[in-house]
Amino acid sequence: MKQPIVYPIERIQEPEFSDVQAFFWNYSGPLRSIQASIEWEIQNICIYHAYVSSGLSRESAKLESKINEQESYYKNALKEISDEDDQYPIELLRSRFLDRAIDIQNVINASDQFLDETTIVSLWMISERFLGQIYREFYTHIKGQPPANIPYKFDTIKTNFANLSVDLTASHLYADADECRTLNNAIKHGNTVSTSLKKFPFFQNLSGPLRKIDLQMQRYVNGVHNFLGSTIEQCHTVLGVSP
Fold it and tell me: 202 to each of 45, 66, 207, 216, 234, how far by Cα in Å?
């Protein structure tokens, strides 16, 4: 089973999280409430993933223990019977048990993969939501009134931020966040390695169903976390708020 993802700030001193930033200075600027909400939402996603992942791991371990127990039982039972005809009913029971065990393990594995898929979709869902909130508050502080509308198409919102002197592509770990966005689209539209995904190094030599790929979940969590925090940081710099 896969390792559960963790809230990046909790492990910021560990090598795997060396790129993670805390963005504490964002709490002193006008967009501080959005930064706080981002931290809560990402922490919720991590808790959800860890809770379900741990439960699936426990079920898998229980199944493995049951298989070992039953295999030992059938092995000992067959040792005590020399006639092959008399062994047949036990072999049949063993075969049916193993078939059922394989079915259960397949369900656990599918649930594990589905957990990653829903987590990716949730990560980009909150990213879209917070990008909209950041843009609205940032625009309002600059223009003195809220925008007429808030775009959610990524290319459009990148252009709108650029018009206010914020370059989303310069936000920290933008590439990982953009990969999460593209992966989210692929999951929702075919669930295979798309042409768009192949532009990212991780997917360059991969193809076929996404469910057969061990996705780098922690990297996407770290990426979305830093991308949003760094975007707020850029907005604060434009507004004259800086560390």
Answer: 23, 37, 11, 9, 28
- Cβ(163)–Cβ(52) under 8 Å? no
DSSP 153-182: SHHHHHHHHHTTT--GGGSTTHHHHHHHHH
How many CA atoms are closer than 13 Å to the CA of 33, on its beta-carbon side?
A: 4
Question: Cβ(126)–Cβ(45) under 8 Å?
Answer: yes
3-state SS of the chain: helix, strand, coil percent to 5? 75, 0, 25
Tens of pLDDT, residues 193-215: 999 999 999 999 999 999 999 99
The CA dihedral of 14, 20, 21, 22, to the nearest 10 degrees, is: -70
Global pTM reads 0.89
Sign of CA dihedral 42, 47, 48, 52: positive
Taking alpha carbons only, the member of 150, 119, 133 closest to residue 223 is 119
Cross-strand partners of 209: 192
Radius of gyration, alpha carbons of the chain: 24
